[in-house]
Amino acid sequence: MNYLLQYTFKPHMGKDETARMMETFASVGEAPGRTHHFVRVDGRGGTVIGETDDLDAVYRNVLSYSDWVEFDMSAVLAVDEAVAQVMDYLS
Questions:
Q1: Nearest 10 degrees: CA dihedral of 1, 61, 19, 12?
Q2: Sign (positive/negative) of CA torsion 79, 57, 47, 67?
Q3: Which residues neighbour 65 within 8 Å (Cβ) at sequence distance 6 or greater?
Q4: Model pTM greater than 0.70?
Q5: How far is CA 12 from the centre of its chain?
Q6: How far is it, in rounded angstroms, from Cα 60 to Cα 1?
């Protein structure tokens, strides 16, 4: 399964909270199956694109950061796969 995970840092995080989040990142690491990780240049969050069949592991990873980050995750299809589904639906 391909996924799109968008995250936003909780507002008003201080340096101490940011330091604890980065310590967690150093020990826990990236979401499983990550293929791309983009950080927003406004400093408010980022986007992870990945592929995995282990949603339990993704969920465990997300929970590790829940004190500092809010998440929005979606399963996604490549456009060529989605168009084929739409064409089947229309026929």
A1: 70
A2: positive
A3: 7, 21, 24, 25, 28, 71
A4: yes
A5: 21
A6: 17
In one letter, which amino acid is 26?
A
Strand order across the 2-9 sheet: 34-39, 45-51, 2-9, 69-76
> φ, ψ for residue 29 (rounded to 5)?
85, -165
pLDDT tens series, the chain, 91 aa? 999 999 999 999 999 999 999 999 999 999 999 999 999 999 999 999 999 999 999 999 999 999 999 999 999 999 998 999 999 999 9
CA atoms within 13 A on the CB side of 32: 14
Structure tokens at 5: 């995970």
Q: Give the helix/strand (H/E) hosting 23.
A: helix 15-28
